[in-house]
Prior knowledge:
alpha/beta; 19% strand; globular
Amino acid sequence: MNSTIKISPSILSADFSKLGEEIVSLDKAGADYIHVDVMDGHFVPNITIGPEVIKKLRPFTKKTFDVHLMISPVNKYIEAFSEAGADIITFHPEATKDISETINLIKRQNKKVGISLKPKSSIDLIKNHLEMIDLILIMSVEPGFGGQKFMPEVIDKLKSLKKIISEKKLKIDLEIDGGINFENCKLAKNAGANILVSGSTIFKENNGDLKKNINLLRTN
Length: 220
């Protein structure tokens, strides 16, 4: 089971004064993906990085750029993030007037499509779109800031989605993001998550030993 678990470190917790070096270190430490949180100060109460920064970071690694767009309206930025080097583009259903249209915009860029659900967002928002997407990102904190505490109540949502995906025999990755540490990662994996996003735990635990922390999240 553990070999199928992918770790996607969130660069929100990295040292922004040397992001390129941080990404090289994550690559060497065995990260599967690089998770990039994009916030606009409107859809969520924080502002992070835009397409230009991603474009500058892209040459530092060949690893998958797992880009989570917490921006609204999302459609007008999809092309820019695609061209900047995103491999997976994840959006929130609340950030678009037409979910199918947003999915198709991402597909036209030949990128993988993810949809993210905030802790209070219902599965019903995405039930009719599952056949069209590659990934579901379950937020286990309210999106906006790193370093928040994990909300265990989202585990039921993860289990429900895993059941639906299995019954429909769909190939959809289940990703979880928010306060993931060496303890609750077990809960998430047992509930069906196969991609773990983690920021603070990877960058700060064990004196910042990235390789050790990535391996612990994968194997715990």
